[in-house]
Amino acid sequence: MRKHIVAGNWKMNCTFSEADDLINAIMEQLEQKELPRDTQLIVCPPFPYLEMTTDYANDSYFMVGAQNVSDQEKGAYTGEVSAAMLESMEIDYCIVGHSERRAYYGETNATVAAKVNQLLQHGIKPIVCVGEVLEEREAGKQFEVVKKQVEQGLFHLSADQLREVVIAYEPVWAIGTGKTATPDQAQEIHAHIRSLLATKYGKEIANDISILYGGSCKPSNAKELFACPDIDGGLIGGASLKADDFMAIAMAF
Ligand code: PGA
Asked: Which is it for the CA torsion 120, 65, 72, 105, positive or negative?
């Protein structure tokens, strides 16, 4: 059965010492509280803090994810970080296709597919983000947009490869805006994604894939979102920068 996952996407926040403090605060809470069964906690700090975070993770109960990866294997790509580098640092997960990458850095579904391939070749689990922008929702196109993102980003994979993937539905209009999708709005897209997976890969595999919700998820709304049958956890931005809030969300199952 699929895992419950709560992943913290720190984005471009925290200095080195702030990152150190935040991880320590999370670890302190993990010592005091037991996570609900089958709940995986993942911390995705900026690249420079990955090593420190994996060192801490070895003594704690969370896993580590990167926020991005190159779509190329290696070579003259100044400023890029490859999947092989992440693998060599024992990184478990990597976010791909976040809406901020799509909007500000021109990432397309083809880029997402190439990055997913790189990660899978190096044994790292991709957390693949999909989601519509406000104009698309207002035009009633959310199902169509998400379908295209899922198909073009993932449907080249074999069933065994797909089993390694986590999907995050993040309506762009809800990210960092304080405007959360209602549980009904989120559940209907999650069910849609799962049915796309079932049609292509079969029901059994579709039921094994964790689909996370992201977009202004916080302690006050996590419980009702996570109670939806097709919502398997959250990708948390702003609220993951406060250990108390992040842990309260992780305890919401
Ligand atoms: P938010 O970000 O929780 O701050 O809305 C979520 C995300 O972008 O992953």
From this structure: positive
Report the topology of domain 4-250.
TIM Barrel (3.20.20)
* Active-site position among 4, 100, 170, 190: 170
Q: Say which amino acid occupies 54.
A: T
Q: Band of the pLDDT at 178, cuts 50, 70, 90?
A: confident
68 pLDDT exceeds 90? yes
Ligand 1 lining (C-beta closer than 6 Å): 9, 170, 175-176, 214-217, 235-239
Could you tell me the distance, in angstroms and rounded to a whole number, from the CA of residue 113 to the centre of ligand 1? 22
What gap in Å lies between CA 56 and CA 68, rounded to an integer?
Answer: 21
Distance, in Å, from the CA atom of 70 to the CA atom of 145, rounded to the nearest integer, reads: 24
Exposed (0-12), middle (13-18) or buried (19+): which is 37, by Cβ within 10 Å? exposed
Q: State the distance from the centre of ligand 1 to the C-alpha of 175, rounded, in angstroms.
A: 5
Q: Where are the domains of the chain?
A: 4-250
- The closest-lying atom of ligand 1 relative to the alpha carbon of residue 168 is 9
- Largest Cα–Cα distance of the chain, in whole Å? 48
37: pLDDT strictly greater than 90: no
